[in-house]
Amino acid sequence: MTPKKFLEIYMSTANSNVAYLRQYWSTDRGLKSTMQLLPLLRDEILRTDGGREAWTSFIQQEAVDILVSQEAPRGNYPQGSFHSSLSVEKSFFTSEEQACQDTALTNQHMPFLYAYHQSLTGHERLNARFRRVATTICSMVAFSNNRRHNGLQLNNSVRFYACGISERVQEYLSHLGLCSSRKTALSALKTLSIEGRASIKAVTGPTLFEEHGATFTSPILCSCSRLEATLYYCLRIILKNEHENLGDECVTLTTDRWNAVVEECYERFCSPQAQRQADKAACPKLGNTLIQLHDFSSVVEVKRSMRAGDVGRLMNAWKKWCIMTQGLTGLTNYSSYPPRMVLLLTVILPPDLRKYLCHNLLISPSGRSNHFVAKDQWLECQNYWIKFLFNQTGNGHSVDRLKELFSLNIGMFAVHPPSCRKCSNPLRPMRAQQSYNNLTKIT
Predict the structure, then answer these.
(1) Name one Pfam family in it (predicted).
(2) Is the dihedral of CA 409, 415, 421, 425 positive or negative?
(3) Residue 411 is part of which domain span?
(4) Same domain as 193, residue 167
(5) Domain count, the chain
(6) Beta partners for 374?
(7) Virtual CA dihedral for 30, 31, 37, 42, nearest 10 degrees?
(8) By three-state DSSP, how is residue 201 classified?
(9) Does residue 165 sit in the same domain as residue 198?
């Protein structure tokens, strides 16, 4: 009897005495020593060309068996991996939910395939980009084996549609297993519209308006900078250092001294007496500057009060504008409509309706303080997305389609292009959405 024949009989016999001797081969007690035999057997087989071919075929079949055994669970999510377009929710498209699904797919359902692709990258290149590649491959394999394992594909189908990918390209990507069909994406959007409609009703409830102010953000940043620079120069004239270079170090003044400087600056440049004296001068430059300083300060006050959501300050500035516009020729509509609006919001309408309208004119889309915008301006941005991006389909101007399918999901659509950029290159810094404020450089 040859040693190989003996080992074959020893491993395959059902004799109880022999089975008792090998009972620890696959347990924690003897598994380590058992695994030490496999590299020795492998090295011996790989010595010849025929052995390498036979070993490759054997390992390939074992890998296939492991992949088949590690199939993603069937059934509806969260017990299974199927996400129905008829029951999908907006939370499904969040980065946190996608991270949970990726972790479950790679670490629980298909760890062998994920570890295989991760090991190909090498230790130095083990980073977020290759983790995304390995995770995507696992999702594609699971989707190819069973079309109901469609977490990544459903997300991508809506994401690609939001990014403006054509239907022909999306069909090709669906054939590769990267996304679901366009029909599935549209079905998901219809389901999300129901959730969006409910959230809009909840947001526009009567309890919201007591917590939010109103504002209007106008494109006057450069003019505000000029106004701030002018006021800063007036203060330096009072301090008698208008020709000096102050540098980067801040000047320290006592509270009494600073208050006195502000009062003197107001009396000299901002008061009615200062305006009348400047009008009598032979050179009109100072008078024109003071007129611009006085009139445009109301614009800055309106801008800042609107941005801060202070409807009281805003209404006071609007009342001043109602008087100012009566003396300006050529502004027929502007001299007529603002007074009507102010009278409606302060006198004519019932108190409860006044409060409702005042706190419903302007919103803060991001929920941050000092980031209020006009509601009509925000709606125009959303309408641009709808009309320009999602009406170029050859279907004509279908109002119901834009209203029911896209309008309620436009906020989610706006998020998908940045998220797609993040997935394509996780190591590249994301573009930060910043708020632009006027910072006058002191020199």
Answers:
(1) DUF6589
(2) negative
(3) 373-417
(4) yes
(5) 4
(6) 362
(7) 170
(8) helix
(9) yes
Q: Is residue 162 part of a domain?
A: yes
Q: Percentages helix, strand, coil for the chain, rounded to the nearest 5?
A: 65, 0, 35
Q: What is the pLDDT of residues 2-24, one digit of tens each?
A: 777 777 777 777 777 777 777 77
Give the global pTM: 0.43
227 shares a domain with 292: yes
Residue with tokens 């079949």: 61
What was the pLDDT predicted at 207?
A: 53
Same domain assignment for residues 132 and 194: yes
Contact 64, 116 (CB under 8 A): no
Tokens 């008087």 label which residue? Answer: 323
> Is 1 inside any structural domain?
no
The verdict on 106 and 195 lying in the same domain is yes
**Structural contact between residues 112 and 69, judged by C-beta atoms closer than 8 angstroms:** no
- All residue ranges of the chain with pLDDT < 50 are 124-125, 209-218, 425-427, 430, 432, 438, 440, 442-443
Q: Which residues, 6 or more positions from 131, have their beta carbon under 8 angstroms from its beta carbon?
A: 118
Tokens of 280: 């009598």
Same domain, 187 and 238: no
What H or E segment, with its residue span, contains residue 360?
Answer: none
**H or E segment to which residue 363 belongs:** strand 362-363
* CB of 374 closer than 8 Å to CB of 227: no
- Among 309, 328, 344, give the residue marking a domain's end: 309
pLDDT score for 348: 92
**pLDDT at position 405, please?**
62
| Token pair recorded at residue 264 | 């003197």
CA 200 to chain centre: 19
- Total number of residues shown for the chain: 443
Instruction: Provide the pLDDT for residue 427.
Output: 45
- The token duo for 9 is 């009989």
